[in-house]
Design goal:
The structure holds three protein chains of three kinds.
Chain A lengths: L1 H20 L27 E10 L2 E11 L4 E5 L6 H8 L9 E9 L2 E2 L5 H9 L1 E4 L10 H11 L5 H14 L3 H4 L12 H13 L5 E5 L7 H14 L4 E5 L3 H7 L2 E6 L2 E7 H6 L4 H7 L5
Parallel strand pairs in A: 3-8, 3-9, 6-7, 7-8
Antiparallel strand pairs in A: 1-2, 1-4, 4-5, 9-10
Helix pairs in contact in A: 4-5, 4-7, 7-8
Chain B lengths: L1 H28 L2 H6 L3 E2 L4 E2 L2 H32 L2 H16 L2 H24 L8 H25 L3 H9 L4 H12 L1 H17 L2 H6 L17 H8 L9 H32 L2
Antiparallel strand pairs in B: 1-2
Chain C lengths: L2 H35 L5 H5 L15 H32 L5 H15 L2 H14 L6 H25 L3 H9 L4 H29 L2 H6 L17 H9 L4 H34 L3
Helix pairs in contact in C: 1-11, 3-6, 3-8, 3-10, 4-6, 5-6, 6-8, 7-8, 8-11, 10-11
Chain lengths: 296, 281, 281
Amino acid sequence: MMNAVTLPIVNAARQISTLWKENIIKPITRSDNFVPDCKFEHTLEKAEIDVSGLNVSIKGKLILKDINLKIPEKKITCIIGPSGCGKSTLLKTFNRLIDSTEGIHVEGKVQLGTNDIINTQGNALTEMRRHIGLINQRPCPLPMSIYDNIAYGCKINGIHNRHMLDKIVEHYLKAVGLWDEIKNRLHTPASRLSIGQQQRLCLARSLAVEPEFILADESTSALDPISSKIIEELFVRLKEQYSIIMVTHTLRQALRIADYVVFMYLGEVIEAGDAQTVFHSPQEELTKNYLSGAFS
Amino acid sequence: MIALAFTSLLLVIGMGGGLFAKSLPILQEHSLSNLLFSSSWHPMKGEFGFFPFIMGTIWVTLLAIVLAFPISILVAVFLTGFSQKRIWKLVYPILDILASLPSVIYGVWGTLLIVPWISRFFGPIFVEYTSGYTVLAGGIVLAVMILPVLISLMTELFKTVPEELRDVSISLGATTWQTAKFVILRKTKAGIFAIVALAISRALGETIAVLMVCGNSAETPHSIFNACYPLSALIANNYGEMLSVPLYESALMLAAFLLFIIVLIFNLSSQLVLRYIKTNE
Amino acid sequence: MKWKFIEERIFRVLMHCSLWIVFGFLVSIIYTIFQRGCKILTWKMITTLPGGGFYIGGEGGFLNAIVGSLYIVGASTILGLLISIPIVFYLNIYLSSKSKFGYVIRLAYDILFGIPSIVYGAFAFSIMIYFGLRASLLGGIIVITLLIIPIFVRSMDEVAKTIPHEILDTSYSLGATKWETVGVMMRQIAPGIATATLLSIGRAIGDAAGVMFTAGFSDRIPESLSQPTATLPLSVFFQLSSPFPEVQNRAYGAAVVLTIIVLILSLSGRFITKYFSKNKI
């Protein structure tokens, strides 16, 4: 008797839910024409980093000496050099994370488009950092779900609309090729993903705040070869829209993907230029030695 | 040496056991629920209702936590996220001194400053008359007493959050406060609970200071402007006469046993959580 | 301006306020104590015994309390050191750092540290009654010793844990026995012992709830271990409850002395840590 009443209801409910899952019934949203990668205003005219006369010292010790560089737009720039040569410090200067180091002293000029990075302070600095994404050496998911990791950047910048966030999360997870792998467990903690997936998640998270620049600090060195290959390919694909600066330890990686190469040694830029030129006909003796594996 | 080390464990167990043994006589005479929930406290007539004292303890402790928690969390966030390291050198001595001041000094301060302030300025805004010796006075004094332990433990806790997490959040365009709110507080949720539990256990056992400012009337408080009588104050105040009244000693030892058990539970759970966090860093 | 920047501004202000509140509490406590006590405090007060009978007589000073505190603090600090140093050595030399037993012992000390002194006092008092002992200097010393051993063990253990195991290994490899290695370790944790001692003295001198039961109170300086004794916090507490302003004044004077002692201890603790951390490995 009970079954006769409840069964049709249950069946109907099941049908509706499958229809819903297959997107045949669509949720009605106010923002159906919302474009997930065009939500913040872009004030930068030219996403180029221009460094001139940059000196950085920590507790009186000069880490970077008179750096002059021009990092091109929408290219992959690789910074190479032996460890301890100041690559990471240079990278951290670009988004001013270096500020939290104790006893730091920065001199010189770093321009992002028309913005002066070194002299930006307070709220403007916070805003500026949004234009420069950062991918760490080790993937570093925030202590929240996969969904919230991607949505975090949007939430802190004032986007709270659930439908918009859904679209953003989907869009960027698709952009890094994670969507199909994890779409069913968006609300599980991000720390449960594999290391390679975590790194792609971090990339998606950075992209979600629409940066012009992406700084990658040896972002593949902690990953297995397959995952690092995926990240590399992503970078190559992403350079159509973003300017990417990569610090790398592996020369081979630089050879594979770099458009522009900066070689640093002991806090100085020894040589910078087109990847072809630097790799195949280096001008400086030091560069030649480094490329031939004389030191690493 | 092993024997000496072992005595610590023995002392914990012995203390619990001893106090329990001492409180057995009254437990045989009255049921536990009657003792805990009756409000009638007349030792001379053989009536021992602990309810007013338990409520007094809860009121004062809760108020202290409510007052001290936001202040300590803000200071700890400030110290770990907003300020330069040299500010620490100024703040730590302050916390040191606050932590080392004896509770009797806090009590004197309470009677000289807080109690008159409540009875003259703060109390009259809300109620017609208050003596000043109130839950509020006890809460404020206790809050100041647990501030140093809350702040220093929270600062330690927030320092365990990896630098990269902050960097990630900041490079996404978050402000320092947003980073603290969404990343640091979120990451350290369990630890914060443990620290609060630890602070509660400290506050529960505090005796002399609350004894001096709480008013000590054996009635269940109904607002923060009522006097109250926490368990610890009850024990301290009556030890002199307890030998002359039958079952009185046993009743006070039951109070001590209750205090011991509650403090033990809070303390043990928070210690276990903090240890777990420390090893899994 | 965006909401996140407004929020940041608000919380920055709140944080500064909290910091100032904490600082303000400290200033207010010290100011209140000194303002009330300094005009009363004379050299004569520190150097004479109270006259005219306890609680009612207003003459004289509180030398009894100072000497009583010195006795109790001195004896229990020495006892505490003698007991806790072997425990720390045992925990750090004989046990490996991953030992389950060590974990339990350390936890037990953390719990003992958290147990309120009123519970210590009640427990010790009930044992004293059991053995037919009266409140006495000895009782006070024992309770305070029990109270500060956890502080000793915890803070020395913190320092001992940071000693790199290579040093011990070097000592062993040179053919030293475990016992000789103790000497090596001793030199390493010397600053730890110093700060632990200061911490313990601070706690010992300020505690009132524990000795209230066990040391009793007396107008005279005790001549033997079995006589009751006054301590500074007890003298503040008891004399403050007297209806006579002269007696109360003595309490305020004693409060100033107590505060000064604690301030000196706390500041010198900071100095010692700083001094020793310069030439530590």
